[in-house]
UniProtKB/TrEMBL annotation:
Protein name: Helix-turn-helix domain-containing protein
Pfam families per record: HTH_31 (PF13560)
Residue ranges of domain HTH cro/C1-type in the record: 7-61
Native source organism of the sequence: Duganella violaceipulchra
Lineage: Bacteria, Pseudomonadati, Pseudomonadota, Betaproteobacteria, Burkholderiales
Alphabetical list of InterPro entries matching this protein: Cro/C1-type_HTH
Length: 95
């Protein structure tokens, strides 16, 4: 799923309008619409601003960790409770 599809899904889940996102990000409604539709080559800062306006964050995940992250997000167990998950190890490395 592309980042644009994820942002559109998040917007629908939160019931946010294009106008409300435009107000929160100081963008025009057409600009918000075009970014969410992936119709324009947007700067990362623009995409981050939209994510932030929807109480979300962009995170780069190394491809080899995607299966574990997907399992974690789906609610499936990834191992014993006393062992840090790959996601915990990944996020600890970001600090």
């Amino acid at each position: 799923m592309s980042v644009f599809e994820q942002l559109q899904r998040r917007r629908r889940q939160q019931g946010k309008t294009l106008q409300s996102l435009a107000s929160l990000t100081a963008m025009s409604v057409p600009q918000v619409s075009n970014v969410l539709a992936g119709k324009v080559d947007s700067r990362l800062g623009t995409i981050e601003a939209l994510a932030d306006a929807m109480d979300a964050s962009l995170v780069l995940i190394p491809k080899h960790l995607l299966p574990e992250v997907a399992r974690l997000l789906s609610g499936k167990s990834i191992g014993p409770d006393d062992v840090p998950s790959t996601v915990d190890r990944l996020l600890a490395g970001l600090n």
